[in-house]
Specification:
The chain has five helices and six strands. The protein is of the alpha+beta class. It folds into two domains: about 5-125, K homology (KH) domain (GMP Synthetase, Chain A, domain 3, 2-Layer Sandwich), CATH 3.30.300.20; about 135-170, no CATH class. A three-stranded mixed beta sheet has the order 1-2-3, covered by helices on one side. A three-stranded antiparallel beta sheet has the order 4-5-6, with no helix packed on it. Helix 1 (about 5-30) packs across helix 3.
Length: about 180
């Protein structure tokens, strides 16, 4: 059964309108002290249009973000009737979908994943200043002098003043 593009387009427009209108109400009209500084990140409308899931992201500057999410969702659930009434008046529709409010934690998860990836990148990247102590201890040459050492099947020079940069003599590309 082919998907009806017009129906999908209509659902997307309704979901976007719901997101904008609910966001406007959260910013200025709802005065419940439980509702923290937040925004509507996404509205997912069910195919029949009878219900919608509203994902709300709480500002990460809050000290206890988990408690703020719980309180915000409770405040929005308490104001659900008012929100639906206002949506009906503003949108000029006969039926407004039943709203369920959920905390959107995707931004926090994404930030945590990026933090972990940055940490692993920093571990993999060894700066030139952090030369292993064992290598520094074996070299007794003054800075700027070149020491002849075997490196695999080739003879390479280690320049101590360049932070152990290899300068190979001969053809490195042969095996």
């Amino acid at each position: 059964m082919p998907e009806h593009r017009a129906r999908k387009h209509h659902q997307d427009r309704v979901a976007e309108t719901l997101r904008l209108e609910i966001g406007t109400m959260i910013e200025g009209e709802l005065v419940d002290p439980r509702i923290a500084n937040c925004y509507v990140s996404e509205v997912s409308l069910n195919p029949g249009g009878k219900s919608a899931r509203v994902y709300v992201a709480v500002d990460s500057a809050v000290k206890d973000i988990v408690k703020a999410e719980v309180d915000t969702i409770a405040g929005l659930e308490a104001a659900k009737g008012y929100i639906r009434y206002e949506l009906k008046e503003r949108m000029g529709v006969r039926h407004v979908p039943d709203l369920s409010f959920l905390a959107d934690r995707s931004g926090r998860f994404q930030a945590r994943i990026e933090e972990l990836m940055d940490r692993s990148r920093r571990r993999q990247k060894v700066p030139a200043q952090q030369i292993p102590e064992a290598v520094q201890a074996t070299s007794s040459l003054p800075e700027g002098k070149v020491e002849q050492r075997p490196f695999g099947r080739f003879d390479c020079d280690l320049k101590l003043d360049m932070g152990l940069t290899r300068v190979c003599q001969g053809n490195d590309l042969e095996k």
